[in-house]
Amino acid sequence: MTEAKKLSGAGLRGQSAGETALCTVGQTGSGLTYRGYDVKDLSANATFEEVAYLLLKGKLPNQAELDAYKTKLKGLRDLPQALKDVLERIPADAHPMDVMRTGCSMLGNLETENSFDEQQEATDRLLAVFPGLINYWYNFSHNNGKRINENTDADTIAEQFLWTLHDKKPSDLHVQVMQASLILYAEHEFNASTFTARVCASTLSDLHSCITGAIGSLRGPLHGGANEAAMDMIENWKSPEEAEKEIMGMLERKDKIMGFGHAIYRTSDPRNAIIKEWSEKLSKDVGDTVLYPVSAKVEEVMWREKKLFCNADFFHASAYHFMGIPTKLFTPIFVCSRLTGWAAHVFEQRANNRIIRPSADYTGPEPREVTPISERD
Ligand SMILES: CCC(=O)SCCNC(=O)CCNC(=O)[C@H](O)C(C)(C)COP(=O)(O)OP(=O)(O)OC[C@H]1O[C@@H](n2cnc3c(N)ncnc32)[C@H](O)[C@@H]1OP(=O)(O)O
Ligand SMILES: O=C([O-])CC(=O)C(=O)O
Fold it and tell me: Where is this region: Disordered (predicted)?
């Protein structure tokens, strides 16, 4: 008989691993705040650049500060030729998250953060460059070697992502949805990728190493990769009835349903209602009669059967799809956003550092001697 899975303390669940002034997750049951501001308030009343400023510099900018910050970021979009050369050599069947990881690491070689005094500059450069970086590779590798111009006239990072992907100015609706999406994904306390960044920062490593490691952690389907995995699942179903039948089968087989459940939230993820509303608007905009109803049915069945709720990733899948974004680029958008949270945590860790080094409960053999190689089985 297989032993029951030991869950309670596993995955450091429920243990505090440090302090942060950046974010609270689930403190009033299902809430999410960035430096005290509710994410619902931010997504309704701010742009991603304002949220980036809030996380990285500690306050919401006034109009003059925002204008200056946006102008600065717009001036940092240029991709160095050596980075373009590397991107052009990455094959079309590479995963875009691996391209992000390599691109970030390559920039760390070309524009190394030599001192912590450069951390803000290095972060702004990554913020400005990431959308163009991934879409330069995507267009080159998937569009007959097309070399896009990353220096677009886009006013914001949200617009820059869509513009460099499709090589044309996006609609206002799409820019609005991207703004909301980037805000929702920006920060989430000690999640796996942020903790990766903090562990790396705690060794006094450089910013590009912290962010490269975080990208690797975000890639997995139990974390950021769930938006892509959710899309791969729901696109198979042609009606809510088919979706219900398939989900019931998956639950019976004890399969994981991607885009559902959470390590901290217990009853809902506050980001879901916001992105779900945008997904519904986009569904109407494109005249969809399948994907949104299928998604809504999956949400209903999962709650009815398991009391499992959609996390931020689930309705992002349909929302991104309706904007013509290829599924494999879903998680890189998460990177373009979460970079702000990761970097803010790196700054916070550096400001009050002790190397992160927990202990482990040993479960291996008792001390023993090495058997000479000729006597081993
Ligand atoms: C927005 C960015 C994010 O990273 S949000 C998370 C994105 N990940 C996913 O959507 C992947 C699917 N979800 C999961 O694997 C888990 O819910 C994650 C998010 C990893 C949390 O894991 P953990 O803290 O262990 O969950 P838990 O202790 O609440 O689990 C209790 C029992 O419920 C189950 N459960 C959980 N989620 C699902 C799911 N999506 N589909 C099916 N079953 C699920 C767990 O397996 C666990 O069951 P058991 O006690 O092992 O029998
Ligand atoms: O907090 C977590 O464990 C995962 C999550 O929702 C996020 O990083 O946005």
Answer: 358-377
Q: Please, what's the b/e burial string for 261-286 (b: 16 or more CB within 10 A of its CB; e: otherwise)? A: bbbbbeebbbbbebbbebbbebbeee
Contact indicator for 343, 207 with CB cutoff of 8 Å:
yes
Place of tokens 């860790």: 349
CA-CA distance, 354 to 351, in Å (whole number)? Answer: 10
CB 264 within 8 A of CB 26: yes
**Ligand 1 mean position to 27 CA, how many Å?**
19
Strand-pair partners of 23? 34
Q: Say which residue the tokens 């050369």 belong to.
A: 85
Can you give the pTM of this predicted structure? 0.97
Contact, 170 vs 159, CB < 8 A? yes
Q: What rounded mean pLDDT belongs to the chain?
A: 96
Of the candidates 113, 107, 122, 109, which has an alpha carbon nearest to the alpha carbon of residue 204?
A: 113
Task: Round to whole Å and give the CA distance between 123 and 37.
Answer: 22
CA distance 115 to 126: 16
pLDDT over 80 (residue 9): no
The verdict on the CB of residue 338 being under 6 Å from ligand 2 is no
Ligand 1, atom 50: nearest CA belongs to which residue?
7
Q: Is the four-CA dihedral 281, 26, 329, 235 of positive or negative sign?
A: negative
Distance (angstroms) between ligand 2 centre and the Cα of 79 equals: 30
167-196 confidence digits (pLDDT tens): 999 999 999 999 999 999 999 999 999 999
Which residue's alpha carbon is nearest to atom 4 within ligand 2?
A: 191
Contacts of 291 (CB under 8 A, 6+ apart): 234, 235, 283, 318, 321, 322
Bridge partner list, 322: none
Establish whether residue 220 lines the binding site of ligand 2, counting it when its CB lies within 6 angstroms of any ligand atom. no
The first and second tokens of residue 201, run together, are 């920062």
State both tokens at 90.
């990455």
Residue nearest to atom 3 of ligand 2 (CA): 191
> What are the pLDDT digits (tens) for 102-127?
999 999 999 999 999 999 999 999 99
User: Cα(143) to centroid of ligand 1, in Å?
Assistant: 37
Angle at 252 between CA 251 and CA 255, to 5 degrees: 45
